[in-house]
Amino acid sequence: MEEEKIEAVREPLLATKQERPKKNKYALGCGVLASMTTILMGYHVAVMSGAQKYMQEDLGITDTQIEILSGVINVYSLAGSLAAGYTSDWIGRRATIILASIIFFVGAVIMSFATNFAILMTGRFVAGMAMGYALMIAPVYTSEISPASMRGFLSSLPEVFINSGVLLSYVSNLAFSGFPINIGWRLMFGIAAIPPAFFACGVLFMPESPRWLVMKGRLGEARSVLVKTSDSPEEAEARLQDIKEAVGIPLEISGDVVEVPKTEKNEENVWKDMFIRSTPAVKRIVATVLILQFFQQASGIDSVVLYTPRVLEKAGLKTDTQLLGATILIGVAKVGSILVATFTSDRLGRRFLFLVSVGGMIISLIVLGLGIEIIEWTHEEDFSWVGVVCILAAVAFVMSFSIGLGPLAWVYSSEILPLRIRGQGASLGTAMNRIISGVVTMTFISLYQAITVAGSFFLYAGIAAMSWVFIYFCLPETKGRSLEDIEVLFAK
Predict the structure, then answer these.
(1) Burial of 359 by CB count in 10 Å (0-12 exposed, 13-18 middle, 19+ buried)?
(2) What is the pTM of this model?
(3) How many helices (H) and strands (E) does the chain have?
(4) Cβ(307)–Cβ(444) under 8 Å?
(5) Which residue ranges make up each domain of the chain?
(6) In whole angstroms, what is the distance from residue 441 CA to residue 163 CA?
(7) Per-residue pLDDT reduced to its tens digit, 96-155
(8) Domain 2-491 classified CATH 1.10.1060.10?
(9) 3-state class of 123 per DSSP?
(10) What is the phi/psi pair of residue 447, to 5°?
(11) Residue 231: how many CA atoms within 13 Å on its side-chain side?
(12) pLDDT digits (tens, 9 = 90+) for 363-422
């Protein structure tokens, strides 16, 4: 009976997609505005790659302190991601995005005026809070605003903008590298204070998430938003009925403003719903989110993003212009390849892109490790064909990551979580992601000093291989499914 009900809801949606193949421009605009905040996340994470050398010369910061500053922002983002779950349920998804922009502004200002390690740590804490907010709320909002026909595309946008921020940070590193040492790195951080004001103003023109509106009993507003963000009036009504059922509002109840029944699922018992009294399907969903977010970061992407100049130096590049120029090449490849996932995930499916992506990562990491090992063996000091292979392997690695595991881990995590636990579940997944990212980035220098750079990449390749096995055996396809029927997949 449960599957028959789901098919009854899905049939009009599939028919609608056939009749109206064009993209919903209103939903697209909302998804773009919501996701643009994550540009600042990518920028703040990656700007350290080029700024760290000048910070060390100006303030006398050690390698260990650089490791801490590079990775601790991910640990600090835990506070933001966990708080964002409560904030988004309390004041709404849209207001939470605006709050993230404000915090980003403050963090950039503190970093640009820092005079010692302690102030730098304070600035990284504030920016980390904003990162946690942006990383959690952008995928949740876009998945909740999207029609099923566009959910993969729109939910990939945060990752597109994160990587755009990474690329912009590389450009900033190169642009300001010619300034005096005590000014250049400050400009690299300070310029990030400009975009938040524009982002916050743009978000004011976005509608609130229809799912949050239903949770607050504001059915009239939710219906209005759904009509604008659905492919047809029939789909809008079907989505509204699904959300009402998930929230616990009887389907026969209508009106613009209604009282939401005070059932257990609407009280502050979300954590119990996830871990204590949850169904086997929900337990599998939560475990899947956590494991997928673990593998996304444990495979070493942030080590390549943050320490690219150091890695390329091992490959034979020496001058700042060569190093930063090659870094920009990697950034361009990362942004360009992520568009593959953005435009094909709704057509090719999540599983296919996941498996191709991780397979490419494994091969690239092995080649990169072998190339650096050859350079170490031969003591090659000048740039050679092996250095070219290393650069190509690094480019292939970030491209492979960006066509699947990078963007789709967020898409998949946000769409499989049931509505009643989506806010806190997404926060938990974000927390796992940031913890592992922090561990990876704060240990990379120490790791390669202990087991060599090549050994580090071989280790990451092994972790990536484990993730391929997990994806193959444990991740069902979610392409074309409504958010409310995905739970049935995990019940099986």
Answers:
(1) middle
(2) 0.72
(3) 23, 0
(4) yes
(5) 2-491
(6) 17
(7) 999 999 999 999 999 999 999 999 999 999 999 998 898 788 888 888 888 877 876 787
(8) no
(9) helix
(10) -65, -50
(11) 18
(12) 999 998 898 888 778 766 555 677 788 888 988 998 999 888 988 888 888 788 887 787
